[in-house]
Amino acid sequence: MKYKFWLFFTGVVTIISASCKKDFLDRQISTELTKDEVFSSYARTRDFLIGTYAYLPDGFNRLDNAMLDAATDDAEFTWEGSAIQRYNNGSWNPYINPDDNWNATYAAIRRTNLYLEQSGNVDLNMYKLNPDATAQQTYRNMTADLERWRYENRFLRAYFYFDLVTRYGGVPLITKTLGLSDSLNLSRSSYDECVQFIVSECDSAAAHLGATVADNDLGRATKGAALALKSRMLLYYASDLNNKGHVKERWVAAAKAAKEVIDLNVYQLESNYRGLFRSTTSKEIIFAHRYAANNGFERANYPIGYDGGSSGTTPTQNLVDAYEMTDGSAFNWNNPDHAQHPYDNRDPRLAMTVILNNSQWKGRAVKAFTGGRDGAGVDRATKTGYYLKKYVDENLDLLLNKTSVHTWILFRLGEIYLNYAEAMNEAYGPDQDPQGFGLTAIQAVNKVRDRASVKMPLLQAGQWNTATLRTKIRNERRVELAFEEHRYWDVRRWELGVALFNSPVYGVKITRTNATTFKYEKTPITGCRNNSPGAVYNG
Question: Tens of pLDDT along 55-65?
Answer without folding.
Answer: 999 899 999 99
